[in-house]
Write a structure and sequence with these properties.
Strand order of the largest sheet: 1-2-3
Helix content: 55-70%
Order of helices and strands: EEHHHEHHH
Number of helices: 6
Strand content: 5-15%
Distance between the termini: 20 Å
Structural class: mainly alpha
Number of strands: 3
Length: about 200
């Protein structure tokens, strides 16, 4: 089981993680939550429904990682040669973003928090790591967070598609990107085996 998820009877998944692996995933999930940021400030005591109708941003994030995590719904300007089509697509993307991004951010925060809490439950086991057991719902949240972590690291490494990963294998050990590359590939393996546990 070490290094990959296996299905549990009745749904869910399990993986053996050592203390270093626990620490790496937890640290990355915390960084992801910090990057996504807190939710919008809404005074629920004044209006309990205010949170449901709070509008989000209409412009894409400036940070390239956040742009990768929250892309334009209707594509960027490179999709169409027509200036009119580009402007319409930008307006539609802004409208879509305004009404969905807060919920998307909240979902990503919740999934990352599930990852952190499940790992915190393991750290008390002491010493040599432990076996993490996830319910089916926790598995889906883990899958979302693993995907977000890979997108974030891939964006920092300027990986646009899977063909770019071939170049990563040839990086010399002294390259400062090497630890991020190793994390990217390892998280990919975890993600792949977790997906397989969710297949019928």
């Amino acid at each position: 089981m070490s290094g990959h998820f296996e299905p549990l009877p009745g749904g869910g998944a399990a993986v053996a993680l050592d203390d270093v692996e626990i620490s790496i995933i937890r640290s990355l999930a915390v960084q992801l939550m910090e990057l996504i940021g807190p939710g919008p400030a809404v005074d629920a005591s004044a209006d309990p429904l205010a949170g449901l109708f709070a509008e989000g941003p209409s412009e894409p994030p400036a940070d390239p990682v956040l742009r990768r995590l929250f892309p334009d719904a209707y594509g960027g300007p490179e999709v169409s040669a027509s200036a009119k089509d580009t402007e319409e697509r930008r307006e539609h993307s802004a409208e879509f973003r305004r009404f969905t991004e807060n919920d998307l951010r909240a979902g990503k925060r919740e999934s990352a928090l599930t990852v952190i809490r499940s790992l915190d439950g393991l750290t008390g086991a002491g010493g040599e790591g432990a076996v993490l057991e996830l319910s089916a719902e926790e598995s889906r949240q883990w899958l979302g967070t693993l995907n977000d972590l890979r997108l974030a690291i891939g964006s920092r490494l300027e990986i646009d598609d899977e063909d770019d990963t071939d170049l990563l294998f040839s990086l010399p050990d002294e390259d400062p990107r090497k630890p991020m590359v190793m994390a990217y590939l390892w998280l990919g393996g975890l993600q792949e085996t977790l997906v397989s546990t969710l297949m019928p």
